[in-house]
Design brief:
36% strand, 8 strands, Thiol Ester Dehydrase, Chain A, five-stranded antiparallel β-sheet
């Protein structure tokens, strides 16, 4: 499994009056970790586009378990779970100091051929090449 992690200092502009991160900002944190994961196998968004495919998010699930707070460091771990027909990535956000689980999430992306604007029902060969796996 491909995995990447990032550490984020929770900034003041991401919190509400109670010093708790507003729920919508977690999606931004997932994106930071997702890009780090994609870069780990050289298939971040610029490389996707160059290969002739875009990969929009078609599903997002978030389970809030605890609260991230202002000035705390959080760790976001992104793990690639599926890639044969879609990119499915799972995420775990924890408080860096305590290790307390704060959020679990997953995203699903599908390949769209840029030239035809058609959805691909299986992942293109370039993804398998980037991952170092033969296409089944």
């Amino acid at each position: 499994m491909k995995t990447a992690e990032v550490i984020i200092d929770v900034p003041f502009f991401d919190v509400d009056a109670m010093q708790v991160v507003w729920h919508g900002h977690y999606v931004k944190y997932l994106e930071v970790a997702r890009c780090e994961l994609l870069r780990s196998f050289n298939y971040d968004y610029p490389q996707m586009s160059e290969s002739g495919y875009m990969w929009p998010i078609v599903d997002l699930a978030v389970k809030y378990v605890g609260s991230a707070r202002f000035a705390r460091k959080i760790k976001i771990v992104a793990t690639l779970k599926e890639w044969e027909n879609r990119l499915k990535i799972s995420y775990l956000i924890t408080d860096l100091e305590t290790g307390k689980k704060l959020t679990k999430a997953s995203t699903t992306q599908v390949a769209i051929d840029i030239s035809t604007q058609q959805m691909c029902f299986e992942s293109p060969s370039v993804l398998f090449e980037k991952l170092g796996y033969p296409k089944p």
